[in-house]
Specification:
Chain A: This is cysteine desulfurase. Chain A: Keywords: Iron, Iron-sulfur, Metal-binding, Pyridoxal phosphate, Transferase. The complex is a heterodimer. Chain A is an alpha/beta fold. Chain A has helices spanning 16-22, 38-58, 71-85, 101-112, 130-136, 159-169, 240-255, 257-277, 305-314, 324-327, 334-338, 343-346, 360-376, and strands at 4-5, 65-68, 92-96, 116-120, 141-145, 172-176, 195-199, 210-214, 283-285, 295-299, 317-318, 349-353. Chain A has two domains: 4-12 and 257-376, Aspartate Aminotransferase, domain 1 (Alpha-Beta Complex), CATH 3.90.1150.10; 16-255, Aspartate Aminotransferase, domain 2. In chain A, strands 2-8-7-6-5-3-4 form a seven-stranded mixed beta sheet, with helices on both faces. A three-stranded antiparallel beta sheet of chain A has the order 9-10-12. In chain A, strands 1-11 form a two-stranded parallel ribbon. Chain A is globular, with a radius of gyration of 21 Å. Chain B has twelve helices and twelve strands. The longest helix of chain B has 23 residues, at 361-383. The chains are: A alpha/beta, B alpha/beta. Chains A and B meet through α2, α3, α4, α7 and α9 of A and α1, α2, α3, α4 and α7 of B.
Chain lengths: 377, 384
C-alpha cells in the first residue's frame, strides 16, 4: 500500500536539491564563518549570500534578516526581544486567540513578567477583525502579533490592513508567516510588516533553521547572548549548511509558488469532489475565500478525530488533528475552539496539508481511502 | 591543508554526515505527529537521547536538545536566574568564560542580578577556595567552564562540585563545550546540575547541542512554544542533526582514551618544538601540567601581532586562530588572556592551536618548521 503524506503543515521532506546544496558544507567547506582565516572567511561569504536570498524572498534588506534555530525561536525573539527593549514605551501587546503556541505561550510568559496581553477573538472562519485590532490599541501598546495564515485551518488574516493600521498608530507589527511563506506573497514593505518569522522545514528546507526579519531601526533586544554573530542579535556559531539549505529551499519555494498554489488548489477541489461523489458527510473549517490552498481542515460529523487519525494511519494516510506541536496531547484545538464551532465539528476535525511530492493520483487515492473509512462509520 | 583550529569548529565525521543525510531524506516526520512517520522520528529521537545520556552517564530524561552550545549556556543561566529569582539574585562565574556565558551574565546584571567574576591563577585556573568564599545565601548559580577554549586550562570542576554539594540550593552549571570527547566527563558523579555541549565541536553537525538538566532542577525555558523537550525547549526537533550528534558523541566517547593520548602526544611534541625558540612564549598550562587539555596550545610571539602570523600561516595552508572565533571581531586583546594575568602585548600576539584526533605528528612538525621560518622573518621586518 502506498503511503500518502498529507501533513506538510507539520513538517516537509527536505528537497533533494536542498540536501545536495548543504552537503559540501559538511565536507570541505566546514569553516567557522567567524574565523579570521580564509578557511572561515570563505563560508562567511556563503552566509551573506544566503541572507540576501532570504531577504529577497520577503522583499527586505539583507541586514534585516536574523538567522535563528527555527520559527519558534524567531517568534520568541520577536515578542520578548521587542517587548523588553521597548519597556519605556509600554507593556501592552495585542495578539489573537488562534496563534501558534510559539506566540501564545510566549505571551503567557510575558504576562508572568508583568506585561499585559490582549488576545483578540476570531469569527467562525478564523479571521481577526481589523476593527477589533484598532479598538484594542492603547497608548501603551508596543506591538501587535497576528499570524499571516493559520497553520490549522489555513485562514489568512488581513495582514496588509493590520500593517497599515499599526504603522498609522505607531505600533510594531509582527507576523508569524511560518505557514504562509512559500504559499502566499510575503512582501514586508507592501504589507507594512515590522517583524516576520519563517521556518525552513515548512518549505522543504532542513529542520533547525529559520529567520526573523526585523525592520531596520526597530528596537529589539538580543535574545541569545554570546559571540558577535548576526550583528550581536543572535549569538552562536552559524549553522552554515542549514542556512544554505534554508536559502535554497526558500528560493525553490518562491520560484514555484504560483504553480504549487494552483496544484494545491486542484488537489483540494479533487479531494472534496471525491467525497461529494461518495456522499461523505464533511464540513470545511476555515474561510471559504481567504485561505491557504495547501491546508484543508475538515470535520466529519459523527466521527472522532483521534480514532479517525488512527484509522487513516493504518490506511496509509498521514494527516493531523491540528498543530503537531500540541498533538501529543489531543486536546481540542484552541483554534477551532476560538472559532466557536459546534461540538460535533470540534471533536471530528482533521487537517490535511499538501506539499512536495503529492500527486493528483495520490490525493485521489487518499480521498477514496478516507471516504471508505468515514462511510463505514 | 593543516587544520589546527578545531576549537573553533571541527569537520563532521563522514559517518555523521551520512547519518544526517539518511535521516533528513528518509525520516522527515515531525516527532510530535501522531501518524507512524512521526512515530518513527520520535523513535529516532528517543534512541539519540539514550545514546547521549549513556555517553554522559545520565538518564535520557535529563537531556534537552538545543540548537547549540550558546543556546545551552543561555538556557542554563537565564533559566535558573528567572526561575529562582525570588530565592536569590547572585551568580558566581569566572572571568575566563566563553562569551555565551560572560555576555549572558552581563545581560543578567542589567536585569538586576549581581554576578561575581572569579579571577584565575596565571595559568587560567579558577581556585576552588575562591568559589567557596564567594558563596552567599543569595547565590543561586555557579557557572564554571570545564576547559577554557583559549588556553586549554582544565578547571577544578570536581572540587567545585564537592564544595557545592553542601549548598543544595545553589545550582552548578558547567560549559563543557571544549571538554567533551577530550577528557572524562561525569556530570552525575561530579555534582553538576546543568551542563552544555555543542555538536560541532566534536565532529557533529552545526545547529545542534544539548543541555544536561539534572532531574529535579527547575528551569524557566528559554524558548517557549509547543512544549517539546519536556517543555524546556520548544520548536520542532532537528531530528537529523540530533541523530548525527548522537552518532558523533558515541564515536568520540568510545575512542576517548586513545584520542586523548594521541592529542596529548601532539601537544607535547608541539610544545617541545616551540619552547626552545627564544621568541616563543607558552600561555596557560605547561607541558606536563595535569590540568592541561590535550587539544589546545596557546603561544605568543611577543612583538608580533597574532593576525600577521595567522595570515602568514594561512599562506602555507595552515589554519589556526587568535582566540575564540565567537569574539574574533574584537580588536582588543583577548579578555580571557588578560584575565589570566597575561600582559597586553603578549595577549595581542597570542595564537591558539587546537587539535582534533585526526591531526598527525607530521602536521605538527610542518607547523613548527613554518613558525621557525615565519616568525624570525616577521621579527626582522618589525625591527626595521
Amino acid at each position: 500500500m502506498q503511503e500518502i503524506y498529507l501533513d506538510h503543515a507539520a513538517t516537509t521532506p527536505v528537497h533533494p536539491e536542498v540536501l545536495e546544496a548543504m552537503l559540501p558544507y559538511y565536507r570541505d567547506m566546514h569553516g567557522n564563518p567567524s574565523s579570521m582565516h580564509r578557511f572561515g572567511q570563505r563560508v562567511r561569504h556563503t552566509v551573506d549570500e544566503a541572507r540576501s536570498i532570504i531577504a529577497r524572498c520577503v522583499n527586505a534588506e539583507p541586514g534585516e534578516i536574523i538567522f535563528t534555530s527555527g520559527g519558534t525561536e524567531a517568534d520568541n525573539m520577536a515578542l520578548i526581544g521587542v517587548m523588553t527593549a521597548n519597556r519605556d514605551k509600554g507593556k501592552h501587546l495585542i495578539t489573537s486567540q488562534i496563534e501558534h503556541h510559539a506566540v501564545l505561550h510566549t505571551c503567557e510568559y510575558l504576562e508572568s513578567l508583568g506585561y499585559e496581553v490582549t488576545y483578540l477573538p476570531v469569527d467562525e472562519t478564523g479571521r481577526v477583525a481589523v476593527e477589533d485590532v484598532a479598538q484594542a490599541i492603547r497608548p501603551d501598546t508596543v506591538m501587535i502579533s497576528i499570524m499571516f495564515g493559520n497553520n490549522e485551518v489555513g485562514t489568512l488574516q488581513h495582514i496588509g490592513k493590520i500593517g497599515k493600521l499599526a504603522k498609522e498608530r505607531g505600533v510594531y507589527f509582527h507576523t508569524d508567516a511560518v505557514q504562509a511563506f512559500g504559499i502566499e506573497e510575503v512582501d514586508v514593505k507592501r504589507l507594512h510588516v515590522d517583524l516576520l518569522s519563517i521556518s525552513a522545514h515548512k518549505v522543504n528546507g532542513p529542520k533547525g533553521v529559520g529567520s526573523l526579519y526585523a525592520r531596520r531601526g526597530i528596537k529589539i533586544a538580543s535574545y541569545i547572548h554570546g559571540g558577535n554573530q548576526e550583528k550581536k542579535r543572535r549569538a552562536g556559531t552559524e549553522n552554515v549548511a542549514g542556512i544554505v539549505g534554508f536559502a535554497r529551499a526558500a528560493e525553490l519555494a518562491i520560484n514555484t509558488r504560483e504553480e504549487r498554489r494552483a496544484h494545491y488548489e486542484k488537489l483540494r477541489r479533487m479531494m472534496m469532489a471525491v467525497w461529494d461523489e461518495q456522499s461523505v458527510d464533511y464540513v470545511v473549517n476555515g474561510h471559504p475565500k481567504f485561505y491557504m490552498p495547501h491546508i484543508l481542515n475538515v470535520s466529519f460529523p459523527g466521527t472522532k478525530t483521534e480514532a479517525m487519525l488512527m484509522k487513516l494511519d493504518i490506511a496509509g494516510v498521514a494527516a493531523a488533528s491540528g498543530s503537531a506541536c500540541m498533538s501529543g496531547s489531543l486536546e481540542i484545538s484552541h483554534v477551532l475552539r476560538a472559532m466557536n464551532l459546534p461540538e460535533d465539528r470540534l471533536i471530528s476535525a482533521i487537517r490535511f496539508s499538501f506539499g512536495y511530492g503529492n500527486t493528483e493520483e495520490q490525493v485521489r487515492e487518499a480521498a477514496e481511502r478516507i471516504a471508505r473509512i468515514v462511510n463505514k462509520g | 591543508m593543516i587544520y589546527f583550529d578545531n576549537s573553533a569548529t571541527t569537520l563532521p565525521h563522514p559517518d555523521v554526515v551520512k547519518a544526517f543525510g539518511d535521516v533528513a531524506s528518509q525520516f522527515f516526520g515531525n516527532p510530535s505527529s501522531l501518524h507512524h512517520l512521526g512515530g518513527k522520528s520520535a523513535q529516532l529521537l528517543d534512541q539519540a537521547r539514550k545514546v547521549a545520556a549513556d555517553c554522559l552517564g545520565v538518564q535520557p530524561g535529563e537531556i534537552v536538545f538545543t540548537s547549540g552550545g550558546t543556546e545551552s549556556n543561555n538556557a542554563a543561566l537565564k533559566g535558573v536566574a528567572i526561575q529562582h529569582r525570588s530565592r536569590g539574585k547572585h551568580i558566581i562565574t569566572s572571568s575566563i568564560e566563553h562569551a555565551s556565558v560572560y555576555e549572558t551574565c552581563k545581560q543578567l546584571e542589567e536585569l538586576g542580578y549581581s554576578v561575581t567574576y572569579l579571577p584565575t591563577d596565571d595559568k587560567g585556573r579558577v581556585r576552588p577556595e575562591d568559589v567557596q568564599r564567594a558563596l552567599s545565601d543569595d547565590t543561586i548559580l555557579v557557572s564554571v567552564m570545564y576547559v577554557n577554549s583559549e588556553l586549554g586550562t582544565v578547571q577544578p570542576i570536581e572540587e567545585i562540585g564537592r564544595i557545592l554539594s553542601a549548598y543544595p540550593k545553589t545550582y552548578f552549571h558547567v560549559d563543557a563545550v571544549q571538554g567533551f570527547g577530550k577528557l572524562p566527563l561525569m556530570p552525575g558523579k561530579w555534582g553538576i546540575d546543568l551542563l552544555s555541549l555543542s555538536a560541532h565541536k566534536f565532529h557533529g553537525v552545526r545547529g545542534c547541542g544539548l543541555l544536561y538538566v539534572r532531574r529535579g532542577v527547575m528551569l524557566s525555558p528559554l524558548i517557549i512554544g509547543g512544549g517539546q523537550e519536556g517543555g524546556l525547549r520548544s520548536g520542532t526537533e532537528n531530528v537529523p542533526g540530533i541523530v548525527a550528534m548522537a552518532k558523533a558523541m558515541r564515536m568520540q566517547h568510545e575512542r576517548l582514551q586513545e584520542n586523548h593520548e594521541h592529542m596529548k602526544k601532539l601537544r607535547a611534541r608541539l610544545i617541545d618544538g616551540l619552547l626552545p625558540l627564544e621568541y616563543c612564549k607558552l600561555n596557560g598550562p605547561g607541558k606536563d601540567d595535569a590540568y592541561a587539555a590535550p587539544h589546545i596550545v596557546n603561544v605568543s610571539f611577543p612583538g608580533i601581532k597574532a593576525e600577521v602570523v595567522l595570515h602568514a600561516l594561512e599562506k602555507e595552508e595552515i589554519y589556526v586562530s587568535t582566540r575564540s572565533a565567537c569574539s574574533s571581531k574584537n580588536s582588543k586583546p583577548s579578555r580571557v588572556l588578560l584575565a589570566a594575568g597575561i600582559d597586553e602585548e603578549r595577549a595581542r600576539s597570542a595564537l591558539r592551536i587546537s587539535f582534533s584526533p585526526d591531526n598527525t605528528e607530521a602536521e605538527v612538525d610542518v607547523f613548527i618548521r613554518a613558525i621557525q621560518k615565519i616568525v624570525p622573518n616577521l621579527a626582522k621586518i618589525m625591527r626595521v
